[in-house]
Amino acid sequence: MNCKESEKLIGQFIRNELEDKELELFVLHTKSCKSCMEELSIQYLVEEGMNRLEEGGAFDLQGELEMKLMQSLTKARFRRRMQRFYFIAEVFAIIAIAIVAFTILF
């Protein structure tokens, strides 16, 4: 992912709208690119800060952003692993059914 692609996805990231693959690429790029991290921080602080000011509570938006990035990466990777696991389980189930059917027929 390049900076231009990353910057286009910032709003979707803040609103939790990214799919797992995009989310993982976005987080990895943003954490390794100082300029994209700065842009994300600015947009996150503005959007979340405005919402929080209306509520009137205390907040640590920079800390929350770091936590959101870490949790997002963990969640995206976990879901990808689960998809792989389900795929492998389905393959084994199909093989088992084929073996049983072959054994019954022959």
Characterise the protein shown here:
The chain is mainly α and 106 residues long. 87% of the residues lie in helices and 0% in strands. The protein is built from 4 helices and no strands. Helix 2 packs antiparallel against helix 4. The longest helix has 45 residues. The model has no long low-confidence stretch (mean pLDDT 89).
Helix share bin: over 70%
Total number of strands: 0
The general outline is elongated
Low-confidence stretches: none
Major sheet characteristics: none
Q: From the alpha-carbon coordinates, what is the Rg to the nearest angstrom?
A: 21 Å
Mean pLDDT: 89
Structural class: mainly alpha
Measure the end-to-end span.
53 Å
Question: β content, as a range?
Answer: under 5%
Number of helices: 4
* Helix-strand pattern: HHHH
Give a quick summary of the entry.
The protein is mainly alpha-helical and 106 residues long.
Q: Which SSEs are present, and which pair or pack?
A:
Layout: H1 3-14, H2 20-32, H3 34-55, H4 61-105
Helix pairs in contact: 1-2, 1-3, 2-3, 2-4
Name some characteristics of this structure.
mainly alpha, single chain, 106 residues
